[in-house]
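fwd from M.: "can u put these together and see what the complex looks like"

so here's what she sent:
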Amino acid sequence: MKIVVLKFGGTSVGSIERIRKAAKIIISYVKKKYKVIVLSSAMSTVTNDLVKKSKKISKNFPHAEYDVLVSAGEQMSCPLIAGELIEKGFKSRSWMSWQVPILTEGKHKFSRISHIYKKEILKYLKSGGIPIVAGFQGINSKNRITTIGRGGTDASAIMFAKFFNSEKCIIYTDVDGVYTTDPNKLKSAKKLKVISYEEMLEMTSLGAKVMQPHSVQDARLNRVDIEVKSSFVNKSGTLITKKKNIINNSSNKIITGISSTQNDAKVTLVGVKDRPGIAASIFKPLSQNSINVDMVVQNISANGIETDLTFTIKLDDLNKTKKIINENKNINFKKLLFDKDVSKVSIIGVGMITTPGVTYRMFQSLANYKINIQVISTSEIKISVLINKKNVKKAIKALHSEFNLDK
Amino acid sequence: MKIVVLKFGGTSVGSIERIRKAAKIIISYVKKKYKVIVLSSAMSTVTNDLVKKSKKISKNFPHAEYDVLVSAGEQMSCPLIAGELIEKGFKSRSWMSWQVPILTEGKHKFSRISHIYKKEILKYLKSGGIPIVAGFQGINSKNRITTIGRGGTDASAIMFAKFFNSEKCIIYTDVDGVYTTDPNKLKSAKKLKVISYEEMLEMTSLGAKVMQPHSVQDARLNRVDIEVKSSFVNKSGTLITKKKNIINNSSNKIITGISSTQNDAKVTLVGVKDRPGIAASIFKPLSQNSINVDMVVQNISANGIETDLTFTIKLDDLNKTKKIINENKNINFKKLLFDKDVSKVSIIGVGMITTPGVTYRMFQSLANYKINIQVISTSEIKISVLINKKNVKKAIKALHSEFNLDK
């Protein structure tokens, strides 16, 4: 049996018109002799409206009831899709998670799928039916509804692709794929045909619009190839797959994409005592207050007594961070500086693992445009630099051209 | 265990404010040491919105998917009620029909509850919890959702009252009980403390605003006493119970209430052949076209050859009726007359079974006000007369006074 799993996100089923379009896409796969399993999200805005209602009742709305409430969204979208397919002459029916059943690990609000009972759906596929399965939900061992976090229908689709060993897993959404960089920042940005899970994970600022990082991680761990496509326009999308599939691809470029951040802030502590454990003593209270520190650089101490420590955080956390540092008696420093006009620009690509000189090319390219680098951080497949916000577009343009992404 | 079943209709849970009010009512019973089982409808307008969506897909939206779609309404209201009770410090949780489970006879869209598994809910009640059960829905033997018709949460509450042998079954709604007649038509209308199932069934025009006739019939067949109350004002409601409980009540009046219709039409066929089967030949095509004939009167034939036949139908069906009669070759008549300005006024009361002279008093009372009676029909506990619409208020006033309902 040639199975394809199709996932439709909220905007792709956001109106009756969109549901009709989704049905047409489903039918196109049936005509290509695929057995189609559909996973659907709630119609867009529905889930947010339900969350709002729960918040009116309580800021700490009980998680078990939250899951019952918000999973009602898929109970509305799925029968509408099935109804449209039946209207068009196909055999179809909706499947709520308790009917499959889809089992989860048990935790409310952020559960994970542990098992999918395949028997009924396989029988239905064989009979020529198109099952429309509610995404985002499962039941736990106590027979209660457990949802799997926002964007959880991607995770549902990935697990269905794994359990049914599907030939394809296609995520239909409102963007048409992953680009080399944000097309709003650079007109010559190109859509990628293929990207590795790892690159996708590193490319948060580009990737998050397409898929939540933890769904990419799910796909990676379960070795499920994912095609991201638009349900609005009929164009090829982007394939997210194993690194190996890409490294072996000779037409591959060294760099896959360039991302940039919007809301970072840089904090510098001048005149910090240069002794072991000083960094930890600063970052501990920040971490205890859920403040995520991203890039960190500690200057080499000129006098062996004092040094400067620079790090970046989310702009939203800046006031909280200043307060914590100023009020913490264990942190000794002479001056606290901060800068709101920074942005982190990153080049990402599995190709850099096997290609030397990438760092140099990046720095030289920015230097040619007189762009000053404030902080640097690197991983195996990503190099990030912190620069002044006003230079972001120029930097992206320079790097896009340097690494041949324009073609 | 002293169990009470509380049912909340759509307007009674129609907003977060209303849900808070419903929770307060629930808590008041908990404080009176009742074990409370709550049955809730969907928040008002939700079900209608879902039905509208299904109609945009298809005029013949498949019934099985319709049931999945519309039953999502209760999946939203129930967790919100449970959440509010938890917020107020009580133990509560929602229960969808498949979790109870509530079994139905199997038919989609208009199913009936055949069994309720009590074990889990009893255990939960004993533990001090307040179960909030989704009304209007059940599952059939194929594990699919089946709804039990509009207003079906009343039926759910009645079946819970029966299966759990509850002390009380209270329907909370947006009217505060059943009145002797429509308060909009007669200011001196009084709220009834008690009414029999049978009277309630006959009092369609008054009763339907409070409960659907088939729910009253459900209560009657299952011998469940029902109290109808408003969730908006704190007042005593109306008890709907067995005839016996009322006849034995010495303070009881002969007549319980007076109802009137708004949208009837009178049709008269002049010069119909007076032979056996003539009425059937006229009513058969009407019935085949789902036209409901209410009052019928066939004049005594003056010449033994021809007669006149008069009947009433819903005003909406008038054009269809005229067309059917005019196009049907088997119906011979000289002239077709119709009158849109008619209303059926009925006096209802189990008391008339044991009291002679009620008919006479009704007719005399109307005659005193010079109100002409066009058609008469009677049942054991109801006498109806068709009169000109302009006389309706006058007639209700006369009868209300004649049968001492003003007091």
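replying to her w this: Residues 3-251 of chain A form a domain with the Carbamate kinase fold (CATH 3.40.1160.10).
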